[in-house]
Amino acid sequence: MTVIDELGRAAHDSDHDVALRAVARLRRLTEQLEAERVAAARRDGWSWQDIALRLGVTKQTVHRKHRGTGDD
């Protein structure tokens, strides 16, 4: 079982403390993964618009959040 599987299971635990801690950890992992993938895409020449489209946000939002990571 992977960490993601464990956290997904824990996020549905009947113990609110366990579930909320799992949700918080999943949020941190998602943010970290997004930052890594955006930086990699920028290094590979992707535009802010292309990245924003895939993430379902505006170009301004993704640029504001991730500028300074990878290649600006």
Helix and strand composition category: mainly alpha
- Global geometry: elongated
Give the helix level as a range of percent: over 70%
Which residue ranges are poorly predicted, with pLDDT under 50 across at least 5 consecutive positions? none
Q: How many β-strands, per DSSP?
A: 0
Beta-strand residue fraction: under 5%
Order of helices and strands: HHHH
Count of helical segments?
4
Radius of gyration: 15 Å
Oligomerization state: single chain
Mean pLDDT: 94
Taking the sheet with the most strands, its summary is:
none
Tell me the number of structural domains. Answer: 1
N-to-C terminal Cα separation, in Å? 37 Å
Protein name: Helix-turn-helix domain-containing protein
Keywords: Coiled coil
Pfam families: HTH_23
Coiled coil: 16-43
